[in-house]
Design brief:
This protein is α+β, with helices and mostly antiparallel strands. It is built from 15 helices and 21 strands. The protein binds flavin-adenine dinucleotide. Flavin-adenine dinucleotide (FAD) binds near residues 82, 180, 240 and 245.
């Protein structure tokens, strides 16, 4: 293999090959499928409810985007989300094109007490952006991003993907923190927090959110910022989709040279202890420009390996100097760190985790990268092409906020460890889930909580995980969504 051209593939070749990529749903499609009779839906409490034909038609007429029922040519494409394990059939899908569309759809659901899911990019691991027999509010067509280069601001549609945001900002020499897979949705990602390769320098994505438009359960459109509806603005920065549908995110951008020192260094798994011990000590001294963290995977060509991803957001000469001890460590089989376009890094995982994969994930927010953690990571390694762990290194600007400054509480964590499994065959579902749980369980004692966006089973631990922010979140929930219309999320019960 060409050592300089090595490109990180996250899971095995089997996974990387030919996932059916869901096509972008942004184009205008035919108007509402006519319901000939009433259809049955499901209420927030799980009771069957009748959705009258006339009301569905009225909704279809009110929306500029289509309302899709089963049988509509785009219904099946629209109901599918990223994780192939979730095969649900909403009674209605409202593909919204504007704030007014979203307000109509929300009001329709609220008046009928109808179970409602919000779909941004569709990446929800536990599948909360789709539901059986309820309403899916599909924002995927609201993906426009407008950049005001002078003000260094990106006005981003609630259904945009991270790739749309990067693609709009980078040509202006601007950027903000965005996650590591470009087909992730800005909507769920941002309302949950937002980790990415630039978070040590610029903070989480919510730390760069300076305003938003939110459609609340009563159908109102609110402009929120630090000065306007400050409680709601606080809550959508980490509290998830509990408070309304965010139709626009206003992000602060930063000047950025997209040609960055970046890539992967890879060692055989036999050197994992050395690499992890080095990282445990080194990460406390990293500059804010340096983003790096270990991954343990079974690579299709290299076998069982430990890898470190590097992105240095600053003067490359300085970056080389800071990186030198890592490069000198052990005997890497690949050193792929070089000057390259930031977009290469931002898209390199896309194909390996394309839409349709069946996947399970958990994570652990790690307060301190101790020797005990290193020992457990070495012992717990699972050599299986379907399983991998990755890390998001925190610290730096992430820790500039206190745990109560935004709804996202885990500001003191040094590292997030992500446990990921992915496979294609439904027959492997139970095994795939079990592998992920097994790896996570082996390291859980080091965890001080979890990042809600990468967690499949957090529901019973929501109160504890939000820590000191939970009571305030409940108060805000009761003000903006007292009937808990927006409940398909890590749900915060109204106070
Ligand atoms: C392959 C992959 C890579 C990932 N990488 C990262 C990463 O690098 N960093 C990171 O921080 N996270 C990452 N995540 C986790 C990601 O942040 C969450 O899965 C997030 O929920 C995805 O948002 P979405 O809009 O695509 O999801 P969706 O499935 O569309 O929505 C998930 C939930 O978010 C809420 N929601 C979505 N859009 C809106 C909106 N506009 N207004 C209000 N609520 C909304 C709803 O409650 C919905 O149920 C990754 C996930 C995947 C699958």
């Amino acid at each position: 293999m060409d050592r300089r051209k090595f490109c990180k593939t996250t899971v095995a070749a089997g996974i990387a090959a030919s996932f059916p990529v869901l096509t972008a749903c942004g184009d205008k499609v035919p108007a509402a499928t006519e319901a000939n009779t009433s259809i049955m839906g499901i209420s927030l409490d799980g009771a069957e409810i009748e959705l009258e034909r006339a009301a569905i038609k009225e909704l279809g007429d009110a929306l500029t985007g289509p309302v899709m029922l089963s049988g509509h040519p785009d219904y099946d494409g629209a109901r599918r989300i990223w994780n192939g394990m979730h095969d649900k059939r909403p009674a209605l899908i409202a593909r919204c094109l504007s704030n007014e569309d979203v307000a109509h759809a929300v009001t329709f659901a609220h008046e009928r007490n109808l179970l409602t899911a919000i779909r941004g990019g569709g990446h929800s691991w536990p599948g909360k952006s789709v539901c059986d027999d309820g309403l899916m509010i599909d924002l995927s067509a609201m993906h426009n991003v407008e950049v005001d280069a002078a003000a260094k601001c990106a006005f981003t549609g609630g259904g945009a993907l991270l790739g749309h945001l990067d693609d709009a900002a980078l040509p202006h020499g601007l950027v903000t923190t965005a996650g590591v897979v470009s087909h992730t949705g800005v909507g769920g990602y941002t309302t949950g927090g937002g980790f990415g390769r630039l978070n040590r320098k610029y903070g989480l994505t919510i730390d760069n959110l300076i305003g938003a438009e939110v459609i609340t359960a009563d159908g109102q459109t609110l402009r929120v910022s630090a000065d306007n509806e400050p409680d709601l603005f606080w809550a959508i920065r980490g509290g998830g989709g509990n408070f309304g549908v965010v139709t626009q995110f206003d992000f602060q951008l930063h000047e950025f040279d997209r040609n960055v020192l970046s890539g992967m260094i890879v060692w055989p798994i036999a050197q994992a202890r050395d690499v992890l011990e080095f990282y445990a000590e080194w990460q406390g001294r990293l500059s804010r420009e340096m983003y790096t963290g270990p991954a343990m995977i079974t690579h299709p060509e290299l076998g069982n390996v430990i890898a470190m991803e590097v992105v240095y957001n600053g003067d490359p000469a300085q970056g080389e100097k800071e990186l030198a001890p890592l490069r000198a460590l052990g005997t890497p089989v690949v050193d792929g760190v070089m000057m390259q376009d930031y977009k290469v890094m931002q898209t390199q995982e896309d194909a390996a985790v394309a839409h349709g994969i069946r996947s399970y994930a958990k994570n652990a927010m790690i307060g301190e990268f101790t020797q005990g953690l290193v020992d457990d990571m070495v012992d717990a390694y699972i050599a299986d092409p379907r399983a991998a762990i990755f890390t998001h290194t925190c610290g730096g600007a992430v820790g500039d906020f206190s745990e109560t400054d935004t709804a996202f509480p885990h500001r003191n964590a040094q590292t997030m460890i992500v446990f990921f499994t992915g496979w294609m065959d439904p027959a492997e579902d139970e095994e795939g889930k079990a592998l992920c749980r097994q790896w996570h369980a082996a390291l859980e004692r080091h965890s001080g909580g979890y990042y809600d966006n990468i967690e499949q089973e957090g529901d019973t631990r929501v109160a504890r995980n939000f820590g000191p922010n939970y009571e305030r979140l409940r108060q805000i929930k009761s003000q903006y969504d007292p009937d808990n219309l927006f409940r398909l999320n890590s749900n915060i019960a109204p106070a």
